[in-house]
């Protein structure tokens, strides 16, 4: 099964490097030299990693097929997919985004909204929950706050700290930065399926 590993952001420098926004918990594995991705949204069908390096919390990648900044610019917004067929997950508490999206979000057994995305962040993963009033809440995907994930039952159980749904919504002062508009060359923010286990609750 092909799942989304990353989305290409801005060109970085003049040698064809690009920034990427990650949707995987294992970027060091996915972006090893020689790693290949199926590409959607660009004029190339496949990209092969030459090297990858970190600039603070932004991953910068050079691809074999991209020689200069002009070529890198044509890749902006392209999506990178990997085939996870046959991959084994050794973590029983890890989840792919496609397993979580659409699940009912329940508090004390009462539905408060739907899970619409899993956002992989540097510090911790976040569930994006569309609340009944139409607003989105960002819920830390940790065992103490999301103690139960039941895809077969169609729900996740949330034990929200006081004020979570009020304070931790996009646009509030508490909402985490997804990396967009970072000084320098940050990748644009987006939500999409993860290439590996998309959420590992601590």
Poorly predicted runs are 86-92, 172-196
Rounded to the nearest angstrom, the distance between the terminal CA atoms is 26 Å
Tell me what portion of residues adopts beta-strand conformation: 35-45%
Sum up the overall morphology in one term: elongated
Compute the CA-based radius of gyration. 18 Å
Count of extended strands = 14
Q: What structural category do the secondary elements indicate?
A: mainly beta
Q: Give the strand order of the largest sheet, numbering strands 1, 2, ... along the chain.
A: 1-2-5-4-3-6
The number of helices is: 4
On the 0 to 100 scale, the average pLDDT is 80
Major sheet size, sense and barrel closure: 6 strands, antiparallel, barrel
In helices, the fraction of residues equals under 10%
Order of helices and strands: EEHEEEHEEHEEEEEEHE
